[in-house]
């Protein structure tokens, strides 16, 4: 079955004064309708180029891009513009009109973009009033109703991206391309934007392509992922498969690297687990690792404990084990366990909520 | 001695100067605006690169701008006569002023448009906007503040040029200053004319800048 987006043998070479730079080589992708597809690249390995090839803002040097079975290179300028109206895009730096307020920004694709009616497009079919009404609906979807009259400079990064998403949805696109859409946002805002994208994908069935360098983004919302390394496609498939069985060196590296990023997002999840529980953080110095302390403790007290996190940290060049344990509810047992651990030379510290 | 005739003369001078400056700026923008847009759009980093169009406009702009205004004034007298009907007088000065101002204005428009964030242009392209739509709805809108600052600068410069209109009997404050100050050594009349010129430039500057700030939505 032909997918929503079919990329075949795509290559892109930039000709510069000094040398030809091969940004992308022989990329093949098949993206099905309704998927959230992640494209992850380490470093600047041509990811922006790849996403721009999907709507022909950048023309590939060779290879084809088919959207719903239509080869983009065979389209005339006008047909291409009509097609682009169906492929919305959001950006790292939001790219809103700074001199227009929120509602006018969202009205832009409704009133001015695309191909005019006489050429078979939708441009000009909407009155200003209708466009405004539609823009207000979109603002509600992204939860920005009260900011309709604000200018982009008065909004935070996350709010700007919400407006950009509303603008992208205005023309009822089939595909939404996200070019590093969360890279300029803090982790919490990133979460909320990702949730919004997820909801849009679910509610409207819009195929979403996410270009990112953050593994946590892919893990969070993508169903499929393609890993690009050095301009080549190194691995692609279901996110869950690649996470459990990464085949290539690049995939493994990304997953390891992703752990650092994930810690932040894990926090909130951990915090929920720790609510109302007595939790402690223990640190193993080098010597204590000879004895299976935790196992012995469980045997001795006959009470289960829950390991919330275990990790090794490099502190001043020495690897130290760190664990977060959730202790049984019995206060007496808790005190005994702590005493037991301290006796064995471990650093014990009560934690409530915050984990670094 | 200051007489009421002199006051009347000064008042006429102010009116003539304003007439020349405002009209030339208006015509200058009618020519310079499309020229500046064309320069920015056909630039190799523009939204519709066209090396030939860019080069032609580029050369025209450079040639006209390198001719001193005084020479241009004399050089295009035949053209002035064709357009206005005569080659002297206040109305006739508007023609060389316009031609001198247009490429200068074109350059300013070009640089204003080049300041527009590429990302915003790309966003419009990704929505399928045509080149014309991008020019009207994105470039000119986003460059608005910078273009208005340009208008302020253009007004000041053209006002300065208009002072040379005395050569062709163009009238205006510059003409008065030259005739009385330079040819007749009546420095106080020259001084008054110069002060009036300064006041005019100040007014243009203040009004122009406050308008551009007021219309800028980027900060607040």
Helix content of chain B: over 70%
Number of strands of chain B: 0
How many structurally independent domains of chain A?
2
What count of structural domains of chain B? 1
> Tally of extended strands of chain A?
14
Distance between the termini of chain B: 52 Å
Distance between the termini of chain A: 47 Å
Q: Per the principal axes of the C-alpha atoms, what is the gross shape of chain A?
A: elongated
* Unreliable parts of chain A: none
CATH superfamily of chain B: MetI-like
Major beta-sheet overview of chain A:
6 strands, mixed
By DSSP (H or I, 4+ residues per run), the number of helices of chain A equals: 11
Order of helices and strands of chain B: HHHHHHHHHH
Radius of gyration of chain A (Å) = 25 Å
Main structural class of chain A: alpha/beta
State the share of residues found in helices of chain A, binned by percent: 25-40%
Keywords:
heterodimer, A: 356 residues, alpha/beta, Rossmann fold, Alpha-Beta Plaits, 6-stranded mixed beta sheet, 4-stranded antiparallel beta sheet, 14 strands, elongated, B: 220 residues, mainly alpha, MetI-like fold, 10 helices, 79% helix
Any overview of this molecule?
The complex is a heterodimer of chains A (356) and B (220). Chain A has 356 residues and is an alpha/beta fold. Chain A folds into two domains: 5-266, P-loop containing nucleotide triphosphate hydrolases (Rossmann fold, 3-Layer(aba) Sandwich), CATH 3.40.50.300; 275-351, ACT domain (Alpha-Beta Plaits), CATH 3.30.70.260. In chain A, 37% of the residues lie in helices and 27% in strands. Chain A has helices at residues 47-54, 77-84, 102-111, 128-141, 157-170, 187-204, 215-221, 239-244, 249-274, 293-301, 331-343; strands at residues 5-15, 20-31, 36-41, 62-67, 70-71, 87-90, 175-179, 207-212, 224-229, 232-238, 279-284, 306-315, 318-326, 347-351. In chain A, β7, α6 and β8 form a beta-alpha-beta unit. The model of chain A has no long low-confidence stretch (mean pLDDT 84). Chain B contains ten helices and no strands. Chain B has helices spanning 4-42, 51-66, 69-75, 77-84, 90-114, 118-126, 131-142, 144-162, 173-183, 187-214. Chain B has one domain: MetI-like (MetI-like fold, Orthogonal Bundle). Chain B has 220 residues and is mainly alpha-helical. The interface between A and B is medium-sized, with 32 and 25 residues.
């Amino acid at each position: 079955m032909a997918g929503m987006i079919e990329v075949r043998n795509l290559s892109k070479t930039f000709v510069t004064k000094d040398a030809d730079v091969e940004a992308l080589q022989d990329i093949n992708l098949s993206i099905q309708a309704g998927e959230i597809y992640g494209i992850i690249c380490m470093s600047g390995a041509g990811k922006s180029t790849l996403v721009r090839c999907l709507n022909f803002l950048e023309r590939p040097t060779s290879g084809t891009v088919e959207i719903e079975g239509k080869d983009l290179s065979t389209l005339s300028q006008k047909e291409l513009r009509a097609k682009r109206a169906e492929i919305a895009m959001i950006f790292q730096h939001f790219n809103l009109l700074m001199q227009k307020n929120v509602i006018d920004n969202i009205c832009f694709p409704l009133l001015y973009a695309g191909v005019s009616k006489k050429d078979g497009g939708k441009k000009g079919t909407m009155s200003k009033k209708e466009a405004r009404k539609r823009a207000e609906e979109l603002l509600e979807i992204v939860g920005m109703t009260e900011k309709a009259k604000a200018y982009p400079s008065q909004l935070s990064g996350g709010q700007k991206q919400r407006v950009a998403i509303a603008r992208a949805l205005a023309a009822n696109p089939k595909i939404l391309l996200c070019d590093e859409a969360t890279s300029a946002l803090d982790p919490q805002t990133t979460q909320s934007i990702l949730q919004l994208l997820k909801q849009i994908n679910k509610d409207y069935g819009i195929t979403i392509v996410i270009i990112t360098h953050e593994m946590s983004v892919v893990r969070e919302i993508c169903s499929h992922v393609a890993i690009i390394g050095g301009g080549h496609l190194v691995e692609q498939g279901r996110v869950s498969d690649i996470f459990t069985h990464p085949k290539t060196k690049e995939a493994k590296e990304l997953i390891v690297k992703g752990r650092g990023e994930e810690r932040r997002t894990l926090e909130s999840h951990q915090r929920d687990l720790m609510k109302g529980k007595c939790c402690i953080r223990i640190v193993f110095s080098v010597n204590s690792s000879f004895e299976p302390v935790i196992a012995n403790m469980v045997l001795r007290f006959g009470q289960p404990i829950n390991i919330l996190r275990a990790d090794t940290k490099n502190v001043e060049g020495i690897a130290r084990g760190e664990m977060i344990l959730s202790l049984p509810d019995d206060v007496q047992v808790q005190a005994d366990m702590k005493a037991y651990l301290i006796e064995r030379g471990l650093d014990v510290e009560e934690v409530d909520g915050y984990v670094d | 001695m200051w007489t009421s005739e002199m006051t009347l003369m000064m008042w006429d001078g102010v009116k003539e100067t304003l007439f020349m400056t405002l009209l030339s700026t208006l015509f200058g923008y009618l020519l310079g605006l499309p020229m500046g847009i064309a320069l920015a759009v056909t630039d190799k980093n523009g939204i519709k690169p066209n090396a030939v169009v860019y080069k032609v406009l580029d050369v025209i702009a450079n040639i006209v701008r390198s001719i001193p205004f005084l020479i241009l004034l004399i050089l295009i007298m035949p053209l002035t006569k064709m357009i206005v009907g005569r080659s002297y007088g206040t109305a006739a000065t508007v023609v060389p002023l316009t031609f001198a101002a247009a490429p200068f204005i074109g350059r300013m428009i070009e640089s204003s448009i080049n300041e527009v964030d590429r990302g915003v242009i790309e966003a419009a392209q990704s929505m399928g906007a045509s080149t014309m739509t991008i020019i009207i709805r994105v470039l000119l809108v986003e460059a608005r503040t910078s273009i208005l600052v340009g208008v302020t600068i253009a007004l000041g410069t053209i006002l300065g040029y208009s002072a040379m209109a005395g050569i062709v009997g163009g009238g205006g404050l510059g003409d008065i200053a030259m005739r009385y100050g330079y040819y007749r050594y009546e420095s106080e009349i020259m001084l008054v004319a110069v002060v009036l010129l300064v006041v005019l430039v100040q007014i243009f500057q203040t009004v122009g800048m406050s308008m551009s700030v007021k219309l800028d939505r980027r900060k607040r």
